[in-house]
Amino acid sequence: MGIQDRLIEDVGLREGVKRLTEDKIEKVVQGVLKGETGARLAAYNEICMRCGLCSEACHFYLSHDGDPSYSPVGKVQQTMAQLIKKKGRVSPDDIYGMAQIAYTECNLCRRCVHFCPVGIDTGYIMSTVRRICHKLGVTPQYIQDTAHSHSATFNQMWVKDDEWPDSLQWQEDEAREEFPGLRIPLDKEGADIYYSVIAPEPKFRTQLIYQAAAIFNAAGVDWTMPSEPGWDNSDMCMFTGDFEMMGRLKRRHFESAQKLKVKRIVMGECGHAFRSIYDMGNRWVAWKMYPVPVIHSIEFFWELMKQGKIKLAKKYPGPVTVHDPCNVVRGRGHHEKLRELVRFLIDGEIIETASNREHNICCTAGGGVINCGPPFKNVRLAGSKAKADELRATGVKTIVAPCHNCHGGLEDTVKRYELGMHIKFLGDIIYECMEKPS
Amino acid sequence: MLHPASSWDWQPGERVVLDSTACPAPHEWQEEPYVSPDGEKLGAIVRLDDGLFTLCVNGTPWEASFDKIWSPRFSPDGRLTAIVQQDGEWTMAVEGETWPENYAYLWSTMFSADGSVIAAAIQQDGEYGLCVDGAPWETLYENANQFTLSRDGQATAAVVQVQSMAAADLAAFQRGVFSVAVNGQAWDRTFVNVYTPTFDPSGSRVAAQVRLNLYDYSIVVDGETWKQTYACVWEPRFNPTSGAVVAPVRVAGSWGLAQDGQIIWEPVFAQCWQQAFSRDGKTIAAIVAPGYGKFTVAVNAKPWAATFPVVTDLALAADGKRAAALGNEYNANWQVVVDGRPWDGVFDMAWKPVFSPDGARVAAKVERGGRQNVLLDGKPYKRDFEQVWEPVFSPDGSKVLIRARDGGKYLRIVAQAADF
Ligand code: SF4
Ligand code: SF4
Fold this sequence. Notes:
The structure holds two protein chains of two kinds. Chain A is mainly α. Chain A is about 55% helix and about 5% strand. A four-stranded parallel sheet of chain A has the order 2-1-3-4. The longest helix of chain A is centred in the middle third of the chain and has 17 residues, at about 245-260. Chain B is built from one helix and 43 strands. The longest helix of chain B has 6 residues, at about 170-175. In chain B, strands 1, 40, 41, 42 and 43 form a five-stranded antiparallel sheet that branches. Chain B is mostly beta strands. At the A-B interface, helix 1, helix 10, helix 11 and helix 15 of A face strand 2, strand 6, strand 10 and helix 1 of B. Bound molecules: iron/sulfur cluster (2 copies). One iron/sulfur cluster binds near residues 48, 116 and 118 of chain A.
C-alpha cells in the first residue's frame, strides 16, 4: 500500500494543488533544494542504504502491521527521494500525497534517528518536504489556519490583545479566593522569571494558568507575565514550513522578555514550543542559542523541588506511568529530571512503558499532526496503536505527560483504545498535592 | 502641564524624597514602585484593607479607589496614569481622575513625546480601536492591534481587521482582511498581514511592513506599497529630514537595508534590525549579525569589530557621531558597548545606554549581585543601590539625574562627573 491508496480529502491540500503546475512545482523544489538545504540533505540521500532498520522505530509502521510505506525510509522514498530523483518535476497529485505524508504521517519525533546505523534524521527530511509544500501553498486546512492566527495575533488561537490580560486578571481574581494576596504580576521589569504559555491556556485551559500562579505564589517565585503579544511561545509555523513567520514569532517572544529585563523564561508544559525556541526559530533569527534562557516546566518544577520550595500536603496516589514528550526528552534530555520529580510527587511506583526515556514512542499528536484537525484524526489514532499497546501493558491508571500536544493526543488514544487511563500535567499534580491555606 | 527637563531641579546633591517608600495608609500589600521622569514622585499600587486598590504617591493615596488597577505609568510630563476597573468596566485614571467614558477593556497606555497627550487601546462591545485623552475613534473594528501614537500625539494608527472571516477560511485570510487605520480611518487596501505601523516625525505619514501573500513581504507607505518584494522585512522607519523610508529586507537568505525600495546596505548580514537615524538623517545605525550567532552594531553599513552572541538596546547620539548598545552572552555577562568598544565591567543585566543631548557623554543603568548602579562614561557612581531607574541627563549634559531606592528610602540625586 502507498499513499495514493489512502488519500484523505482536505480543503487546504485540495485547493492548494489546484493552483499548481509542474513548472511551478519544479521551480519551488529546485529553489528549496538549492537555496536552503545544502550538504545535509544531499548526504542523507546519498548514504541511505535502504536497509529498513529505521522501520521498527516508527509508530506509524508498528501500528500498521509493518506496512513499509509507513516506515521512515518508506516515507522518504515516496517524498523527498522522488523530488530529488525527478529534480522536482512531479505532478500536483504527487504533491498532494507528499503533503499528506509529511504533515500527517510523521510526527517529526526523531525516534528513527536512534535506529538508523548512519544517523539519518527522517524528521528533518520531512520538515524539508513540508517547507516545499508550504512554498507550494499545499498545507492542511486546520494547521494553516493556526499559522494564520500566529501571523495575525502572535498566538495560535486568535486570542485578541485584550483577551489575554483580561483572562490573566480573571484567573488572578479567582485564585485570590483560595490564596489571599496572590498576584499574577504583569509586565514586572527585572523579575527572575518570565512565564510563557501557549494560547490554548487562556482560551480553554485557564486552570493551568491558575495552577501555575498558585505554585509560583506558594514557592515565593519572583515572576511576571507580559501583557502584550509575545506571551505565546508556540509555533505551528515551524511545522507548516513557514520559517519566515517562525522567525518573526521567536523575535517577538524573545524581545518581549528582553524588554522586561528578566533573568529567564520559564515555559509551561509544552513540547514543540521548546523545539522552536532552542533549535529552529532562534537559529532562523541567527541566534546560536536562545537569547534569553528558556527553562521547561519539568526543569523548573524540579529546581523548586530540589530547593525545597514545593511543600506537599499529600502525595498523589500511584502507580503512574510517564510519557516522555519527544521535544523535551529526545530533544533536551529531561527524562531523569522528569522521573525524579514524579517520584517526589507520587506515592507509589513509576511503571515504565516498554519504550521509554529517549526511546519513547511519540503520542502521535506531535509535529503539528494533531493540528491538522478532524480530517486526519482517524489516521492519527490508527498510528497511535503502538503507543496504546505499551500504555495498556503498564496496567496503571495515570499517565503523567508534561506537554499540551501529548495530552490532546493521549486523551484521544485512551478513548479510542479504551485504556481507562487519565492524563495529568505536572502542574495538575503539584497543585492538587501542595499545601494550601486552610 | 508641560514639564520639560529644563524646569527640573538640577541643584547637585542627594535628596531624600521619601524616608519610607511604604504607603502609610493601612493596606494589605503594596506593588512595584514607579517614579516620575523628574524624580520627584514615587507611586505604587496598594491594595487597601477594604479590598479595593489605589495608587499611593509620595505617601499619599489617591482619593479614589478601584476594584482593580494595573499598568501604572508616569507620563513624560510627570502625571501618573493607571488603568482602572470599576463595576466591571475599565478606563484610564490620570492623577486620580478617570476619563469620562468606560470601556469593556482598555490597555496599552501611550504618551506623546512631551506627555501632553495620553492614548490607549480600547475594546467596546467586541469592537476595537484607540482612545485619545478619553475620546474614542469614531469607527471601531472587529479587531485591532499594534497601536501607535505620533510623536506630537496628534495622530494615532493601528492594524485593523476590515473584513469578517469565517473560522478556518484560508481563502478569505489569504485575500487579505487587514489594513491600517489612521485616526480611525482605514486605508482602502487590505493585506494578508500588516506589522509595526509607524509615523514620520511630523505625524502626517505612516509606514508599515506588509505581507502581500504568504511569501512576499514589502513596505507600505500611506497605503502605497513599494514595487519591490522581499522574502521578509522588518520595521520601517522614516528618515527624519528627507522623509525617505528605510527598512531591513531579506534577500537570498541575508539581510540589508532598503530605502524606498532600493538597497542602501547590501544584504550581507545574517540579521539586521532596529535601525536608528541621527537628527540630520545622514547617519543610520542598526543591530546586525555579520555572521551566524555573531551580533554587533553597524553604523552606515560598517559593522563594529567586536561581536557578541546577542546585542540589544541600540542608542545613536542625536548628531550621529556616536552609538552605543548592549552585548551579552545569552542574557548573562552584559557589557555596555560604546563606539564599538566595551566598557570595563561585566554585569548581570544592563539597560539601554543614554546619550547626553550633545552626544559627549553616555550613561547606563547596570545590575550586579542584586545591586544596581548608574555608569557614566564607563565609571560607576560612587555608591550602589537596591534599585535605580534609568539615568537622565540635564539639558546641558553636565549632570545626571539618579533616581534610586535603598534601605527603604527613595532618593533623588543630581550627580556630576566627579561623583563617578
Ligand atoms: S520522525 Fe518519528 S514519526 Fe517521523 S518517521 Fe521518524 S519515527 Fe516515524
Ligand atoms: S535505517 Fe537509515 S540507512 Fe537504513 S533505511 Fe532507514 S534511514 Fe536509510
